[in-house]
Specification:
Elements lengths: L5 E8 L3 E10 L2 E11 L6 H12 L5 E6 L3 E2 L2 E3 L6 E3 H8 L3 E6 H9 L21 E6 L3 E8 L4 E6 L11 H11 L13 H10 L1
Parallel strand pairs: 1-4, 4-8
Antiparallel strand pairs: 1-2, 2-3, 5-6, 6-7, 9-10, 10-11
Length: about 210
């Protein structure tokens, strides 16, 4: 498959926005042929979004790959911030793809880190980076996504994580007060309840 030109439908599936694109691949070369963004909550399922995109673009893709905000196991995912149950094989059968891949969205980001150019990256706080060290990716959006990359002696390999659902661990009196405030609203107060879009609203209301 890597030695011929193919078109792949790629998607970033988030709680707020679903982005779909047609990517043409030939070896290590890639070109974006079409791209659209959709409000996720306006659709009953991922199938509906993909059907609308394909009807507008007629991309003729044999393969599809989706990065999804939520844990993926055995080609299936119950999305974290949407009422969508996504099954790779059912998507392939319903939409006519030869194969569909599902991957955690932050793990997908981790796979893409390696192709970023130097001017694609903005350093907030310079440190002493180790090119062969392990790394983490943290992304605050609708929720709080996390992934990691470990060094195997030759290259970095990504792995997904649901670390955003770990317990919020306050480190000051103010943060302890925030925890108590959030505990009145939620049975479980995770980092995602604080570091995310909804977390910003909660912090504003708390203050």
């Amino acid at each position: 498959m890597a030695n011929r030109r193919i078109k792949v439908l790629a998607g970033d599936i988030g709680g707020t926005k679903t982005s779909l694109a047609v990517i043409e691949l030939e070896g290590s070369q890639r070109e974006v042929l079409a791209q659209e963004h959709y409000p996720s909550t306006a659709y009953a399922s991922l199938d509906d979004v993909v059907r609308e995109f394909m009807a507008a673009q007629n991309p003729a893709c044999d393969y599809a790959s989706f990065g999804i905000a939520g844990p993926v196991k055995d080609g299936k995912c119950d999305t974290t911030n949407l009422p969508w149950q996504i099954d790779a094989q059912m998507l392939a059968d319903a939409l006519g793809f030869r194969r569909v891949w599902l991957i955690n969205d932050l793990e997908a980001n981790a796979w893409g880190i390696g192709i970023l150019k130097e001017d694609d990256i903005y350093t907030l706080s310079a440190g002493n980076p180790d090119a062969r060290g392990n790394a983490s990716i943290i992304s605050a959006g609708t929720g709080l996504g996390q992934a990691g990359l470990y060094w195997d002696g030759e290259r970095h390999w990504p792995f997904g994580s649901e670390g955003g659902h770990a317990d919020f661990a306050p480190a000051s009196k103010l943060e302890i007060s925030l925890l108590h405030y959030l505990q009145r609203q939620y049975d479980h107060v995770s980092w995602e309840r604080v570091v995310s879009g909804m977390g910003l609203v909660s912090i504003y209301e708390f203050l």
